[in-house]
Design a protein that fits this description.
Elements: H1 2-21, H2 25-28, E1 31-34, E2 38-42, E3 47-52, E4 55-66, E5 71-75, E6 82-90, E7 94-99, E8 108-113
Antiparallel strand pairs: 1-2, 1-8, 2-3, 3-4, 4-5, 5-6, 6-7, 7-8
């Protein structure tokens, strides 16, 4: 009887540990991502900066992330202009996105920059 209880406890602990150790998308996206020409810096306060090469083009714009739908919405300073993206993480260091309003299914990949 005690062995069965111990096994159940161990199984529950392993399941909960696996679930709680999995990094959430809201945490994964934080930091700087770049490809050959563009970069984005996502912060925990749900703001982002963006630029090209060494230039910063925008600062402190809002974003939302919906992990269930794999949707990333990036807002701009222009009324009625936002970017609606579908995203996926490939491993821990690659963020792949595409415009969810486009018929083009090609993914654009960004790589995590360690600072």
């Amino acid at each position: 009887m005690y062995i069965k209880m111990a096994v159940r406890f161990l199984c529950i602990s392993l399941i909960l540990g696996t679930i709680s150790c999995k990094e959430k998308d809201e945490e994964k996206i934080l930091g700087k991502w770049q490809n050959e020409q563009d970069w984005f810096l996502y912060r925990a306060d749900k703001t982002y900066d963006a630029g090209k090469s060494v230039l910063t083009m925008v600062r402190q714009f809002k974003y939302t992330i919906d992990p269930d739908a794999h949707r990333l919405t990036m807002y701009t300073d222009q009324q009625n202009q936002s970017y609606y993206l579908e995203y996926t993480f490939i491993g821990k260091d690659t963020l792949a996105v595409r415009n969810s309003l486009s018929t083009n299914r090609d993914l654009i990949k960004f790589y995590k920059i360690k600072e």
